[in-house]
Amino acid sequence: MFTKILIANRGEIACRVAATCRRLGIRTVAVYSDADANARHVAFCDEAVHIGGAAARDSYLRADHIIEMAKETGAQAIHPGYGFLSENEDFARACAEAGLVFIGPPASAIHAMGSKSAAKQLMEKAAVPLVPGYHGEDQDATLLRREADRIGYPVLLKASAGGGGKGMRVVEAGDGFDAALASVKREASASFGDDKVLVEKYLTRPRHIEIQVFADSHGNCVYLFERDCSVQRRHQKVLEEAPAPGMTEERRRAMGEAAVAAARAVGYVGAGTVEFIANQDGSFYFMEMNTRLQVEHPVTEMITGQDLVEWQLRVAAGEALPLAQEQLAIHGHSLEARIYAENPDKQFLPSTGTLRFLRTPPAVQFMRGGDANAPAAVRIDAGVREGDTISPYYDPMIAKLIVWGRDRDQALARMAQALAGYHVVGLSTNVAFLQRLVKSEAFRTADLDTGLIERNQTVLFPPQKTAGIEAIALAMAALLERETRTRRIDEADRHSPWTHAGGWRLNGRDVRTLHFQGGGHKLEAVLKGNASDTSKNTLIYADQAAPFAYTFNADDIRVDLGTRRTHGQVHVEGDTFHVFHDGRHTVLEWLDPLAHASESEGEGGKLTAPMPGKVIAVMVEAGSKVTRGTPLLVMEAMKMEHTIAAPADGVVSEVLYGVGEQVSEGAQLLAFALAEAAA
């Protein structure tokens, strides 16, 4: 076995490989770009070396430099992870020439499966089922059109050297063929440097099922069952599960044996994934083979009890496969959700930014966990932490959320619960979308095909809901708690009763009206206080009135609304309240009238007090020239200090109140002339 390896990848991929190496006592070397100097995978490994600029082509794709770093650090092998150089035959060959073990298949196998058209010709010889299509070398446009007419529409045009959903077009009828062909060729040439195209029959409601295969250098090859990856957007996977719902033992065996035949046809060694497209009637056809471990491999680990990275390392070290086919079995059901920094409501547009707040459900990391009887219920494979930045340079994945259950129903329930506990602030994510997806009838009943998302647009992309009273109550509690914590202390008399005064009123109740902005709506909530018994406070919102009380337990807020009790978390950024409750993330902006008073009053030539209070500081005098944002006067209201600032450049005409004076709501504080008017 190796004593040190270099991991030629980043993020959760590098962390995943390093986790197994740590368990096996193998030292690891991380590589990092300028953008990843403080990344989690750098800290996760035993050593780290800098390999270049932020862009992948300047760092993670610099094969020669990575090999040089491996030799300098004394690594015996290079694990390419999945992505970047993992399916680069030149890199695999260069590793061997440098005396380093490439932890992956031989270069010849990568080459054989690298071209979709060539691979399908090989599969045809190996009797692996193929979708009717044309996979030849002749790329004459007239010939391709004739082949499409022969196959019958709709057909799928696909870049021969493609991947990741790029270079693919569905042609519904012959009159659209020429334009689609030109488009695919342009995209294929730009993305892969190869404009070869293959033509296949397009299946209208196909499922995407892949088989995990493993082979060693001793002639052994097994399949570790299947994964259903049908739920996709832009031809990229969103949810994966194992085993595939509705799979019969006969079909599983047939697909597994076909996958093994495919691997044997190219002299495969190591971990590989054979992808099939499956009809609703149970028929299946070879699509492609990914000559690497896949992003979704954790679901296979959860149902088989095997560490597939450990298998990779042992096979690469020359050992035989740990288990034979008859020793492998399926136990339970596993789901994986890919949590991305993206906006599903904007065509899944990637989002960049800082993870300012990150809370996750209790989970094991990178490992199956659990015990001999069952794995852990929840697993998280993540390459980022709170405070990290999702940059534009790499894949916007935040984490893989994996759950296991005794059956699919339990796994679904655990996934819904885990997603509800995954809280992110700082950028857009697909968490809410995933929640709707997991709970949708189509997914819950396993009515699966690659068009599931498109077929269920209404359910998966509903109109935004107005915040409920529970979310408002939680935000209200967080606001009141913040005000209590930040209340001004009189240093001259820290025990002053005025410092600790509540909402007591001599001749009535403390009534406070708060305005929030949320979901495109302005929301009003009224809190009627009761100084003698805070449990009798009343919250009024959206024609609802309920007794209101709250308590804090660490960062969890419990709110009582009469006989109803709810709880949640609130992350506050300035006047923005991120409320996490009942699986929902509600964003509410508090419209603080004092904080924004000057913004709305400047044009009228006067600044007024939006609430009753006391003037505690005056920073200007009549005739003072000020610029926008200059502090003019400080009021104390609601036991907090509020600064009234200049709304624009101008001149203070008159100061109408002095320090210590009480002012009523709406009272004019200063006369102010805009700079243009004063001139």
TrEMBL record:
Gene: accC
Occurrences of domain Lipoyl-binding (ranges): 598-673
Pfam family, one: CPSase_L_D2
Annotated source species: Cupriavidus metallidurans (strain ATCC 43123 / DSM 2839 / NBRC 102507 / CH34)
CDD domains attached to this UniProt entry: biotinyl_domain (cd06850)
Cofactors, names only: biotin
Stored NCBIfam families: PRK08591.1
InterPro entries for this protein: ATP-grasp (IPR011761), BC-like_N (IPR005481), Biotin_BS (IPR001882), Biotin_carboxylase_complex (IPR050856), Biotin_carboxylation_dom (IPR011764), Biotin_COase_C (IPR005482), Biotin_lipoyl (IPR000089), CPAse_ATP-bd (IPR005479)
Residue span(s) of domain Biotin carboxylation: 1-458
Protein name from the UniProt record: Acetyl-CoA carboxylase, biotin carboxylase subunit
Enzyme nomenclature, EC number: 6.3.4.14
This protein's UniProt keywords: ATP-binding, Biotin, Ligase, Nucleotide-binding, Transit peptide
Residue ranges of domain ATP-grasp in the record: 120-317
Gene Ontology MF terms: ATP binding; biotin carboxylase activity; metal ion binding
